[in-house]
Write a structure and sequence with these properties.
The structure is a single chain. The chain has 4 helices and 11 strands, in the order E-E-E-H-E-E-E-E-H-E-H-E-E-E-H. By secondary structure, it is an alpha+beta fold. The protein has 2 domains: about 45 residues, no CATH class; about 100 residues, D-Maltodextrin-Binding Protein, domain 2 (3-Layer(aba) Sandwich). The strands form 4 sheets. Strands 1-11-2 form a 3-stranded antiparallel β-sheet, with helices on one face. It is elongated and about 55 Å long.
Length: about 170
């Protein structure tokens, strides 16, 4: 058993209660130097023509990047691939900053690079899916005070540590 778990995204297990700690969204971005030399990117499926910087998770050879259209309910999932991959998100960010390709990372991982201009967002009509930061715990009739207090602490401490997510 466990008292509290931390995860990105709501849990698929309905036996768990999820409390959102921090809003987050995946952001498709690349460096200005990569953007200058890349083919046009108008819709998510255009990623097939690009060097995608892949974070290896769960032994997946072809990650699925998911997007939502900003002005409609349209969704798109794209299988991406690239020459460069890592199981370390910081390595992927460094590769993107150095102009090696396109990445899809959490807002809180890239917001400073976007603000400085070192990275630029791509596909303005599309956005990566939500990947909110949650505290999860097993469903109980009574939530122990230690769990409530810890979740309240996380919500207080995390607020303001990352700039607000633009456009929700």
């Amino acid at each position: 058993g466990f008292d509290v778990g931390i995860r990105i995204g709501e849990p698929p297990d309905s036996r768990l209660v999820a409390k959102r700690i921090l809003p987050n969204r995946r952001v498709l971005c690349a460096s200005p130097s990569y953007i200058a030399k890349m083919p046009a990117l108008n819709v998510p499926s255009d990623l097939a023509q690009h060097s995608c910087l892949v974070i290896r998770e769960n032994d997946s050879d072809f990650p699925l990047w998911r997007f939502e259209h900003r002005h409609s309910s349209q969704r798109q999932a794209v299988k991406v691939s690239g020459q460069l991959a890592s199981n370390d998100g910081e390595v992927i960010t460094r590769l993107a900053l150095d102009g090696h390709g396109v990445m899809l990372r959490s807002w809180w991982d890239v917001n400073e690079h976007l603000a400085s201009g070192a990275l630029r967002t791509l596909l303005p009509d599309w956005q990566g899916v939500r990947a909110d930061f949650y505290a999860v715990f097993e469903h109980r009739r009574h939530i122990p005070t230690r769990i409530s207090a810890f979740i309240d602490f996380l919500q207080r401490e995390m607020a303001g540590r990352v700039p607000a997510l633009p456009n929700g």
